[in-house]
Amino acid sequence: MLESTSKLLHKLTHSEKAMAYLCREAQEPCLASELQRLLDKAGMAPADWLLAADISRSYAYQILRGERRPGRDILLRTALALHLTVEETQRLLALGGCGALYPRLRRDGALIYALSRGLSPAETEELLLSLPERSLYGGSV
What we know:
Elements: H1 5-14, H2 18-26, H3 31-42, H4 46-52, H5 57-64, H6 72-81, H7 86-95, H8 106-116, H9 121-130
Helix pairs in contact: 1-2, 4-5, 6-7, 8-9
């Protein structure tokens, strides 16, 4: 579980062991390894993931090798395809360097709703379009 920002700030500013903490944090899993772990946990092969999340084959394998960093919507489609929890999705977004889901934003609220109910990427897309909110596939409202 990730620490709160205030606890992290306190550790960095008040701890004699701040460098040890930073070195330990540098060993945290990268996006590619975390994604592979999540695929294994879901029992999903990379080929199944790229179809379910609608990602091109070459781009998907570049992500898995750590050569490319996917955008937020690709990570969200991945979370939906893998049936991740909201917490797992937030971690995936953080590892991808993307903003967390924020419930005060209607689109993010809809995504939290979809994740918590196990909706598929296609069902979530229908939900977003019905609101209307921006598509998970790069389209506008």
